Amino acid sequence: MRANTWVQGASLVFLAWLLIELPAVSVGIVVAADAVAADKITGVLSVHDVLTIPGRPARIEARLVGKSLLRRAGLGGERLELLVGGKTVATAMTGGDGRAFFEYAPPRRGNHVMTVRLADNKRVTSPEATATLAVWERRRPILLVEAAALVERAAGPKIPLLPVPLDFGGFGRRGPAPDAAEELTRLTKFFYNVIYLSWSDSGTLVRFGERGGLPEWLGKHKFPAGLRMSVDPGREALAAKIEDMKAGGWTNFRIGIGRTKAFAEVLVEHRIGVIIMPASEEDEELPRKAQVAKNWKEVRKKL
Asked: What ranges do the domains of the chain cover?
C-alpha cells in the first residue's frame, strides 16, 4: 500500500516537472530551428535571355552569388534546375564563380519563359530567376527597339541624345509612352520579332534575376515578349553587337525604333531602316536617312 502511494506521489511530481519544463524545451527546439535557418546563405540567382532556332541546342548561363552589401561572390557547388514552360528540362552545378551552364534544344518556335531555381538546397536560399528563351526562325524580320523610346517623355528636362543607361528602378518608374505597348503588340503579332535594347555602363544594366529591371517593367505594362539585350554606351558597342548577330546568321534586321542620335547613326551605317521619336523639336540633326515620328501611332504608319 505504501509502495503504491509512493509511486503515485512520484508520478505527480514528474507531471508537475513536465508542466514547468515543457515550454522551455519547446522554446529550445524553436531557437535551434531558427539558428539552423539563420545559418543559410542568402543568394541571388540571375539568368540572361537567350536566342536560338527550333531544334538547335541553346547554351543557357545562370549565376548564383551571395547577397552582400560589400561584394557578390559566386557560390559554387550548388545544383540548379532549368524549367521551360514550368517543366524541368535540365540541371547543372555551379562552379567556383557561381556560374552554371545548361543545354536545351527547344522543339517549338516562340518566346518561352525559362526559370532557374535551386534544387533541394539546404545551404543556400534564393528566389527563382526568369528570362526569355527566344526561339525564332531566321526568315522573320527583326525589329530593334531602343528602351528609351518606350518610356513617356519627361515633363522637365528632355531625354538626352546620347545613349545613357536607362535605370528602370528610377527613371523607368515613369509609365510607358502612349500607345507604345499596343502598337508593338500589333507589329509583333504577325510581322516582327522584337529586340529590346538598353544601354549600360557595364553591359549588365538589367540584372535579370532581380526586381525593378527592364523585364519586370515590360511585363507590368503589357509589352509583347521579346529578346532583352544591353550594350555599353557608345556607337561602337551597338555596332559590334549587330555585327556579331549577323555573323551568327541573324541578318534580317528590318528596322529600328529609337530616341537617340547614336542609335540612328549606327542603324543607318548598317543599312537598317530607323524611325526616331526625338525628345523635342530642338534635338540635334539626325542622319538624312532616318525617319522622324511624333508618336507610336505615327511609327506604325511609317513601317
From this structure: 41-135, 142-302
Backbone angles phi, psi at 210, to 5 degrees: -115, 165
DSSP summary character for residue 233: S
Q: How far apart are the C-alpha atoms of 193 and 191, rounded to whole Å?
A: 7
Please provide the CATH number assigned to the domain covering 142-302.
Answer: 3.40.50.1000
pLDDT digits (tens, 9 = 90+) for 243-297: 999 999 999 999 999 999 999 999 999 999 999 998 665 556 888 899 999 999 9
Sequential DSSP letters for 238-295 = HHHHHHHHHHTT---EEEEEES-HHHHHHHHHTT-EEEE--SSTTPPPPPTT-EE-SS
CATH class of the domain defined by 41-135: mainly beta
For 99-142, the pLDDT digits (tens) are 999 999 999 999 999 999 999 877 899 999 999 999 999 999 99
